[in-house]
């Protein structure tokens, strides 16, 4: 999917959802591979879900 989950997560934590949308978070299929392979055990899938929900709420698809 050419996503960069750690970058998406960083922008989510800073509240920059415009940048998150530019990174293609809506293309995430929430398969969980990023969370499974993350050496820091960050909850990346949950972050992706949060970002997608926020982007939809703002009307940015």
If you had to describe this structure to a student in words, what would you say it looks like?
This protein is mainly α and 61 residues long. The protein has one domain (5-55). Helix content is 59%, strand content 0%. α1 (5-14) crosses α4. It is globular.
pLDDT average, as an integer? Answer: 90
Shape, per Cα inertia axes: globular
Unreliable sequence segments: none
Summed up, the domain count is 1
| Helical/strand content category | mainly alpha
The tally of strands reads: 0
β-strand percent reads under 5%
- Largest sheet descriptor: none
Radius of gyration: 11 Å
- What is the overall number of helices? 4
Terminal CA distance = 17 Å
Primary descriptors:
mainly alpha, 61 residues
Write the layout of secondary structure elements.
Blueprint: H1 5-14, H2 17-22, H3 33-37, H4 44-58
Helix pairs in contact: 1-4
Offer a quick outline of the entry.
The chain has 61 residues and is mainly alpha-helical. The chain has helices at 5-14, 17-22, 33-37, 44-58. It starts with a helix and ends with a helix.
